[in-house]
Design goal:
By secondary structure, the chain is an all-alpha fold. Helices cover 78% and strands 0% of the residues. It has 5 helices and no strands.
């Protein structure tokens, strides 16, 4: 006979529900901005130029965002270590973006990389907590 079934409880259910909601939002946001990067949307080109990122880097940065979104999605589907690694990678990515904005003194749109950083960080904390 195997071990008794594990009971999650209400707190565990809330953490899991929060994890799913926050991670789905993070996946959607990163996938959308990766598409905008690949389509070379006007706001992407303007922001990249303002912080000193060469246009040739944009597809590579889009690939990193898309890979992070895919890893988070796979984490939701059961590959927990991959989801945690993807969330950690996005945290580092957007931490770098925030630092770059601050170093270049581009504060008027700092909320965007900071928001993405917050989503990635929340996804990481909730993935680790579940």
């Amino acid at each position: 006979m195997g071990p008794p079934p594990r009971r999650i409880g209400l707190k565990g259910e809330r953490v899991f529900a929060s994890y799913v909601v926050v991670t789905v939002i993070t996946v959607t946001a990163n996938a959308a901005v990766a598409v905008a990067d690949l389509m070379r949307a006007r706001f992407v080109l303007a922001n990249s130029a303002e912080v000193g990122i060469a246009r040739s880097w944009i597809p590579w940065l889009a690939a990193l965002k898309a890979a992070g979104a895919a890893g988070l999605l796979l984490g939701l589907l059961g590959l927990r270590p991959l989801g945690i690694a993807a969330a950690a990678g996005l945290v580092l990515f957007f931490l770098g973006a925030v630092v770059l904005h601050v170093r270049r003194r581009v504060f008027h749109n700092l909320a965007f990389p900071a928001g993405f950083l917050g989503l990635a960080l929340a996804s990481l904390v909730l993935a680790a907590a579940r």
